[in-house]
Predict the 3D structure of the following.
Amino acid sequence: MNNLTFLPVLWPLFTGILLIFIAKRIKLQRWVSLFSSLIGIVLSMYLVFSVHSQGILTLNVGSWEAPFGIVIVADMLASLLVLTTNIIGLAILLYSFHSIGIERERHYYYPVFQFLLIGVNGAFLTGDLFNLFVFFEVMLMASYVLLVLGGTKIQLRESLKYIIVNVLSSSFFVIMVAYLYSVLGTLNMAQISQRIAEVNQPAILSVIAIGFLIVFGLKGAIFPLFQWLPGSYYAPPIPVMALFGALLTKVGIYSIFRTYTLMFYHDQGYTHTFLAWLALLTILIGVIGAIAYWDIKKIIIYNIIIAVGVIIFGISVMNEQALSGSILYLIHDMLIKAALFLLIGIMIKLCGSDDLRQMGGLIKQYPALAWTFFIAAISLAGIPPFSGFAGKLLILQGAGESGNFLGMAVVLLSSLMVLYSVMKIFMYGFWGTPKADYRSAAVPVNKMLIPAVILVAISVLYGVATEFMYPFISQAVETLLNPDIYIKAVLKE
Amino acid sequence: MKQNDLILQTVTKVAAFVILLFAVAIFLGGHYSPGGGFVGGLMTSAAIVLLLLAFDLKTVTAILPIDYKFMIGAGLLISSLTVAGGLLFGVPLMTHAYRYIDVPLLGHISLHTAVLFDLGVYLVVVGVTMTIIQTIGESE
């Protein structure tokens, strides 16, 4: 019994409920959600350190024993992701205060924000497949509201697409859960894994594995299933975009992590090869998009797809280096994508346009913004002292060890293209002669810059202190490589 | 032309009470027979919707001066407080407890904390349904 495990979900729930009651008092809402986010970070840090010292923590909700009740499982991967989510939540909240606008704030922006955090944290922490579905829905419902809130024309159009795609993929999720339940007769992830090991994954289970890949691929935007993402992420205001870009696709990736390392790992020749090809094609598509556009939002959006491909490729290799690389890269990518979205948000506010060709010379009036962006950009590409380096290096090592040289080449070349795409923003946006006097735009740049600087600073620290982080990462990988640890912790055998 | 819906309004005055009573019966019987918070809540809002059909929005808000958004909040609060009760008693969250109590008139009955959870569900369902219907009804 360990109630701490569920607190990162329960805490935002209470905050969200409280915020419903004070929806018309904006100042109070801001203070309450800020305070709650700080507590959330403390709680999740405590969770990370508890898992570090005591191993996997489980909670049998409602005192029902493991395979029969819902079990909440905090292993190292989940707790690290919960901590990252809370940090990003705080930064985006701070940014929202100055950019989301009174009208949206009055219409339940902050409560819905908290409900999104509930969904994401819950999806990371659950140990039950159907409960995962429910938390997916909590997250998606909140994201529908955030996407459409404000009701501009483009938001209405894109949220229609987004909702249709997600309703389809959610119903497919339910169908896949039904198939799995009729084959194995259980929904508890640990017991699913145990039973698949007993029957040694016959063909029907490989089919279900691919089915789950389609579901989570739709949520996480991998190669043939990504078409909804560029349009839908383009529509909402910047803080919401940052929230989506940093958190939503990553929940899909986390679910692929769970299903492909905990459950369906017996027929790797089939499932994991399939995964590897899809990952490489995802990287390719992302790269094409990222270098094609002159629209800075589009460039960063396609960079999400590239990162998804790189992380999934790491999962498909399935050895120690590649998995720890994937986890390192996943956390790095969540932080840096949020930071980049916040930064380009400031640029767009200043220039009044998201077309790179309309911008120029920002560095003369806003040097702090420019250098923060520069650091974020080279972290994204993976230049050594910064955070993207260690993860990609380990993924490359892992790929080399398993002899997948094509994959290595694609990942390396993709880094170059990522660097090119963000440097294009830097060179066209910040260098050159100013196109206008940006100071007349009356944007609270310094206040909006603070959360972005916090995120970039954390990611720089994360890159420099990889040595300090590594014990946590390797603990996470140990669980992923030996599902028995997870099963023992949950089923207590 | 103003329609005369005397029959509808008179029948509604009786039927709404019957529906409400049936909703409460279904809600309270949920533990032992089909029913529970969800259908109970739906049926309660069905009674209110019947009132809305027979009278108009203004009259119904005058009869039931409830802000349904707060009702959603209250329901969520009750349910999640029941869940969080585990923190106080040092047991896993959502652990329920029950006790047999002698209540005057009703006799020897069992009271279960799951009913509190269900009460939350009931309030949320009523709140959500009425918010949807009211919002759509008000918008031009």
About this structure: The radius of gyration of chain B is 18 Å. Chain B touches chain A at residues 69-70, 72-73, 76-77, 80, 83-84, 86-87, 91-96 (CB under 8 Å). Chain B has one domain: 5-138.
